């Protein structure tokens, strides 16, 4: 027996798992208020928090079988389209004027042109109906050119190298007022596969381009669709296995609307090239969205004049990005829908997950220009394991009245989730340039890296803050979380026109490299713990600010917040605020802390409202005046010696301040970033009954990092003072 096989460009997944039911929500709301609750955990626990987890998006089984692509060429029934008539010689096909009806399963080859007619499939047989389009041009002014009323499965094959087209009219004529189907130029009530090495152009002037009320698979085909409403719709599922698919739709681009079965309603991109330009959502599914290969390019919202709140890819359930590339352009902006006494905002979003979003290997680029736009948004958790993510959101933020009539605000965000966010690996570049814009906004925990490894993360915000109501502002924060923020590894570069890292609960540094090159306040939370890693902060106000948010009883009262320095290396450099400011306590037990204070009083390198407890570690801090250090020194259960050194005339920026012992071994060799009059020093090497000398000026051949020298030879300085530590206290005050 002679057979013909159509070999496809990519291998389709043949088996999928089953997923449990989940709730659906259209948009993740963003809370813009800056108030922090009064509870605190002052343990300074150095354990890693649990790593955020995203659910696995496993889909249901499809109708695909290997036998779909193998058939007996000798059994082919020929259907010839002849302008206004149809020629056929088989009893399996009946012809009524310009309408041909296939009544039996089997293989059919269609050729020619049909100016105004229809090909109908209507069979009760269990076999496959296979239709080979071999250079076909079909049009219908009143219905779908191809209409599958009934069949077990239909395979539409595009003949090798052939060009085929289907075009419907702008209005359909139905037998009764109760009927509303078909509603697409290629419409099937059964499972449908489109495959082959030819090309198909579909123009849906009535509503949709291609639609199946069951499952729909596109494989190894070149398909171009233009539609008045949705481009391609597979109710139970829509699989793009391979080939090249181009869609321009005034409604949704690709759609799978089954919301009754938790294992269905999914869109699965396995390979090929997919280009979608849509007026509404480019890809919209009521189940899961998965991608494991291929190249997806999306322009969501530009196909119509109204571009409000269009989504690039939206799934009501889980989203899994395991390979391939996704590029999304979002011209749309926030849409305020009337609700209660005000409005409920919906946002233009690149990737919108109704539950969890997982990225593990895909390359993603999202560019949003509209007001309040979101790059990636999850109603549940968002976890990035690997791959590359580049997001730019330039839209501005603004105020509005929410459903209770209260003034609220929206702003753009590159990454946002109502649950936890885990940035565990990959390369991420996030830029928010609009007013109030956020880089990462986590409604739950924010975890960066795991077990010493992590992402290469760059976050930039350049917009201004704006007033929401009274003294309430929407701030452009680089990294923000309502829950715990933990850094376990990776490399981070942060530049922000307001906060660099901000958590309403706590911030813990365990490992990794964090560089905040620009900020108003670098790191802010109730409890801030430095266990390990390397942290560098440049800020115009406070470098580190431990605060509960609102201090009762005056600005100098202890609000219960705390900064813990247990290990690692941290340098703070501020222009006008405190390098380290705690509205509660400060506890230093290990690590290295280098602080460059501001240029002038009243701010200092180190400010605290509670108790400064010192039991270990190395600290060098420079301040402009003696006010804070002169009045406040380590207390409580302090057990390590420390010195407050006050100069009669300041040590200029870039000049050396040095303390060495009688043998010339340095305790510290340091260059302040600004003219400083007060230096605070503590080191495990400081001992009683040892003579120490203070030098200024000179030069050092050692390695200079953050103003601190290590190694090398010191020479040429001026001896200013010789002193010994106090025999009655851990703190010694020295004037020179």
Task: Give a nutshell description of this structure.
Residues 1-21 form the signal peptide. This protein is an all-beta fold and 736 residues long. The protein has 3 domains: 78-317; 328-525, no CATH class; 537-547 and 559-736, no CATH class.
Describe the structure.
Residues 27-59 are annotated as: Disordered. By secondary structure, the protein is mostly beta strands. The protein folds into three domains: 78-317; 328-525, no CATH class; 537-547 and 559-736, no CATH class. Helix content is 1%, strand content 52%. The chain contains one helix and 71 strands. It has a 35-stranded mixed sheet that branches. The N and C termini lie far apart (104 Å).
- Rounded Rg: 33 Å
Count of the separate structural domains? 3
Tell me about the largest β-sheet: 35 strands, mixed
The amount of helix comes to under 10%
Instruction: Kindly name the structural category.
Output: mainly beta
Task: Fill in the keyword field for this structure.
71 strands, 1% helix, 35-stranded mixed β-sheet, signal, 736 residues, disordered N terminus, Cthe_2159, 20-stranded mixed β-sheet, mainly beta, 1 helix
Write the layout of secondary structure elements.
Elements: E1 3-5, E2 70-72, E3 77-83, E4 85-88, E5 93-96, E6 99-102, E7 106-114, E8 118-122, E9 128-140, E10 146-150, E11 153-158, E12 163-168, E13 184-188, E14 191-196, E15 199-204, E16 208-212, E17 215-219, E18 221-227, E19 232-234, E20 237-240, E21 243-249, E22 254-256, E23 266-269, E24 273-278, E25 283-285, E26 289-291, E27 295-300, E28 311-315, E29 319-321, E30 325-330, E31 335-339, E32 342-346, E33 349-353, E34 357-368, E35 374-378, E36 382-393, E37 398-401, E38 407-410, E39 413-417, E40 421-423, E41 427-432, E42 438-442, E43 446-461, E44 466-469, E45 472-474, E46 479-481, E47 485-495, E48 501-503, E49 506-509, E50 513-518, E51 523-525, E52 527-530, E53 534-539, E54 544-546, E55 562-565, E56 569-574, E57 580-582, E58 585-596, E59 606-608, E60 612-623, H1 627-631, E61 642-651, E62 657-661, E63 666-670, E64 676-682, E65 692-696, E66 699-700, E67 703-705, E68 708-710, E69 714-715, E70 718-723, E71 731-735
Parallel strand pairs: 3-7, 6-8, 7-9, 8-10, 9-11, 9-12, 10-13, 11-14, 12-15, 13-16, 14-17, 15-18, 16-19, 17-20, 18-21, 19-22, 20-23, 21-24, 22-25, 23-26, 24-27, 25-28, 26-29, 27-30, 28-33, 29-34, 30-34, 33-35, 34-36, 35-39, 36-40, 36-41, 39-42, 40-43, 41-43, 42-46, 43-47, 46-48, 47-49, 47-50, ...
Antiparallel strand pairs: 1-2, 3-4, 5-6, 31-32, 37-38, 44-45, 60-64, 61-64, 62-63, 62-65, 65-70, 66-69, 67-68
Region (Disordered): 27-59
Signal peptide: 1-21
Pfam families: Cthe_2159 (PF14262)
């Amino acid at each position: 027996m002679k057979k013909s096989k159509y070999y496809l460009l990519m291998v389709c997944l043949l088996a999928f798992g089953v997923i449990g039911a989940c709730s659906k929500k259209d948009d993740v709301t963003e809370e813009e208020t800056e108030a922090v609750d009064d509870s605190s955990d002052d343990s300074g626990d150095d354990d890693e928090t649990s790593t955020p987890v995203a659910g696995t998006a496993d889909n249901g089984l499809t109708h695909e079988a290997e036998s779909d692509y193998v058939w007996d060429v000798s059994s082919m029934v020929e259907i010839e389209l002849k302008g206004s008539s149809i020629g056929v010689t088989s009893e399996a096909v009946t012809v009524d004027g310009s309408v041909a009806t296939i009544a039996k399963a089997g293989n059919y080859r269609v050729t020619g042109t049909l100016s105004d007619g229809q090909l109908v499939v209507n069979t009760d047989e269990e076999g496959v109906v296979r239709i080979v389009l071999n250079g076909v041009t079909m049009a219908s002014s009143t219905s779908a050119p191809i209409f599958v009323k009934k069949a077990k499965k239909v395979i539409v094959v595009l003949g090798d190298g052939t060009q085929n087209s289907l075009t419907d009219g702008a209005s359909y004529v139905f037998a009764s007022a109760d009927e509303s189907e078909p509603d697409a130029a290629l419409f099937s009530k059964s499972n449908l596969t489109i495959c082959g090495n030819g090309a198909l152009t579909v123009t849906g002037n009535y509503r949709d381009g291609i639609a199946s009320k069951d499952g729909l698979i596109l494989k190894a085909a070149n398909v171009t669709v233009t539609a008045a409403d949705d481009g391609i719709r597979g109710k139970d599922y829509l699989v793009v296995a391979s080939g090249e698919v181009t869609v321009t739709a005034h409604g949704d681009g690709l759609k799978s609307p089954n919301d009754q079965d938790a294992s269905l309603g999914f869109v699965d991109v396995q390979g090929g090239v997919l280009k979608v330009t849509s007026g509404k959502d480019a890809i919209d599914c009521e189940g899961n969205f998965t991608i494991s290969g291929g190249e997806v390019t999306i322009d969501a919202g530009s196909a119509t004049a109204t571009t409000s709140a269009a989504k690039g890819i939206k799934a009501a359930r889980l989203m899994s990005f395991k390979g391939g590339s996704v590029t999304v352009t979002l011209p749309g902006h926030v849409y305020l829908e009337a609700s209660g006494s005000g409005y409920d905002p919906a946002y233009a979003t690149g990737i919108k997950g109704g539950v969890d979003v997982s990225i593990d290997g895909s390359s993603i680029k999202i560019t949003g220009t509209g007001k309040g736009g979101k790059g990636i948004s999850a109603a549940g958790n968002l976890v990035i394991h690997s791959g590359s993510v580049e997001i730019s959101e330039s839209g501005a933020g603004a105020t509005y009245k929410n459903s209770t009539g209260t003034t609220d605000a929206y702003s753009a965000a590159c990454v946002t989730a109502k649950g936890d966010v885990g940035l565990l690996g990959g390369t991420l570049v996030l830029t928010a340039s609009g007013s109030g814009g956020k880089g990462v906004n986590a409604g739950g925990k924010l975890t960066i890296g795991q077990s010493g490894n992590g992402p290469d993360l760059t976050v930039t915000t350049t917009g201004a803050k704006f007033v929401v109501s009274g003294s309430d502002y929407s701030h452009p924060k680089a990294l923000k979380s309502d829950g715990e923020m933990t850094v376990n590894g990776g490399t981070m570069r942060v530049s922000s026109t307001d906060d660099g890292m901000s958590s309403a609960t706590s911030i813990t540094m365990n490992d990794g490299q964090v560089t905040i090159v620009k900020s108003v306040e670098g790191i802010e939370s109730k409890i801030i713990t430095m266990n390990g890693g390397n942290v560098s902060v440049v800020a115009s106000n406070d470098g580190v600010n431990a605060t509960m948010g609102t201090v009762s009883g005056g600005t100098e009262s202890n609000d219960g917040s705390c900064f813990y320095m247990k290990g690692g290396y941290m340098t703070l450099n501020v222009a006008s605020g405190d390098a380290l400011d705690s509205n509660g306590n400060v506890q230093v037990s290990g690590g290295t802390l280098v602080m460059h204070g501001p240029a002038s009083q009243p701010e200092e390198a180190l400010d605290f409202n509670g108790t400064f407890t010192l039991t270990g570690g190395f600290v060098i801090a420079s301040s402009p005046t003696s006010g804070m250090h002169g009045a406040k020194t380590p207390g409580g259960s302090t057990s390590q010696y420390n010195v407050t050194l006050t100069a009669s005339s300041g040590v200029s920026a870039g000049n050396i301040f040095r303390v060495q012992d009688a043998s010339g071994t340095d305790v510290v060799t340091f260059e302040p970033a600004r003219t400083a009059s007060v230096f605070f020093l503590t080191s495990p090497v400081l001992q009683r009954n040892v003579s120490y000398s203070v030098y200024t000026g000179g030069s050092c051949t050692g390695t200079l990092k953050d103003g601190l020298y290590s190694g090398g030879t010191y020479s040429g300085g001026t001896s200013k003072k010789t002193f010994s530590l106090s025999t009655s206290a851990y703190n010694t005050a020295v004037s020179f």
